[in-house]
Amino acid sequence: MQYLLNTYARFDVQFEKGMSATLWDKNGENYIDFTSGIGVVSVGHGNERLANVICSQAKNIIHISNLYRIEPQEKLAEEIVKKSGIEGGIFFCNSGAEANETALKIARKYGEVNGEIKRYKVITLENSFHGRTISTLKATGQPKFHQYFGPFPDGFTYAKDIADIYNKIDDKTVAVMIELIQGEGGVNPFDKEEIQNLAKFLKEKNILLIVDEVQTGIYRTGEFLASNLYEIKPDIVTMAKGLGGGVPIGAVLTTHTDVLKPGDHGSTFGGNYLATAAALEVVKILDEEKRNGKLADTIEYFENKLLEIAKEYPEMFESVSGYGLMRALRAKTPEIRDEVVKKAFENKLLILKAGTHSVRFLPPLTITKDEIDEGFERLKITLNSLEK
Ligand SMILES: *Cc1c(COP(=O)(O)O)cnc(C)c1O
């Protein structure tokens, strides 16, 4: 590790093998993975179908650049548009931050070419998370991330909550960018009606609604997009984490297909054969899980286990939040939360932190009931060991 920059407080473990939601370390000890690499490994570790597609694609063409047509890229774009029910076009990139950068560029250009004065301001929310590049960091409404890295690009305004967005709009506002369920912020879903009213209002005012679905997208909430769950059709949706099942890929879907022209934006790696062939298979696998009812079953099973924990340990937890397999237990204090995550690891259960008080759960969407049972068994052992 000595040649790596010290940007992560890592657990001292090296995993060697993975299968579904189970990981094995070098000593052959098994761990239950309720993190899926932060919502990425949506079809589980060692997924044979995904591995086969990656393998055969790698033996043929991995990459040719976007100077030429790429068949799986075109197919994946079609799948995303059709599954989302949002009529539009797609730009592919390699990460969530890049997808959000793209969304911001589309909004900026839209604000430049539509209307008398240039509109460029983007309103985002406090407690949001949109990425680590300079502008997505500025879009992220958490001051703790901003220290050291200024000066930042102009044009970002923070609203306290959805209601406060209306107060922050002025004649330079071109877009509002939000998560529907704030992930890193603590797994906080917004109210459906409030979001629908906002979407309607913004449409009337010709202000773009950008929904950051980097964490919520690709069946994480049980629907293809959280936007489908909220029954809205945003102007721009960004996706990344779960889309490639671990192969890096980001995507931007927009209904404003005429804004970006050749030369306005690009990405060397974005949408290459390997990544889009992989993502196409991921979407196919998860679509099947959705259609045959397994995804809904798993979600219900997992949710009931969480509700049980909240009921059995009221001195530690206040509530369960989230949708689908993007969930959290809200701890009474940050100290309890930190202790639970740390001790869970000692009991060979991988879980995540989010916000200040939340224990976050983002298991693979294909996790088995046995793995869920085993994971919650380990969670109970952990909680019992912490009870005074
Ligand atoms: C993880 C995340 C990002 C950043 O994605 P990267 O791939 O790490 O750049 C942006 N927005 C949301 C909502 C996220 O959860």
TrEMBL record:
GO terms for molecular function: identical protein binding; N2-acetyl-L-ornithine:2-oxoglutarate 5-aminotransferase activity; pyridoxal phosphate binding. One of its GO terms (cellular component) is cytoplasm. Pyridoxal 5'-phosphate binds at residues 96-97, 129, 212-215, 268. It is an enzyme of class 2 (transferase). Pathway: Amino-acid biosynthesis; L-arginine biosynthesis; N(2)-acetyl-L-ornithine from L-glutamate: step 4/4. It catalyses: N(2)-acetyl-L-ornithine + 2-oxoglutarate = N-acetyl-L-glutamate 5-semialdehyde + L-glutamate. Its cofactor is pyridoxal 5'-phosphate. It comes from the Bacteria. Its main location: cytoplasm. Binds 1 pyridoxal phosphate per subunit. It is found in: Cytoplasm. The modification N6-(pyridoxal phosphate)lysine is found at residue 241. Its EC number is 2.6.1.11. N(2)-acetyl-L-ornithine binds at residues 132, 267. Keywords: Amino-acid biosynthesis, Aminotransferase, Arginine biosynthesis, Cytoplasm, Pyridoxal phosphate, Transferase. InterPro entries: AcOrn/SuccOrn_fam, Aminotrans_3, Aminotrans_3_PPA_site, Class-III_PLP-dep_AT, PyrdxlP-dep_Trfase, PyrdxlP-dep_Trfase_major, PyrdxlP-dep_Trfase_small. GO terms for biological process: L-arginine biosynthetic process. It holds the Pfam family Aminotran_3. Belongs to the class-III pyridoxal-phosphate-dependent aminotransferase family. ArgD subfamily. Homodimer. May also have succinyldiaminopimelate aminotransferase activity, thus carrying out the corresponding step in lysine biosynthesis. This is Acetylornithine aminotransferase.
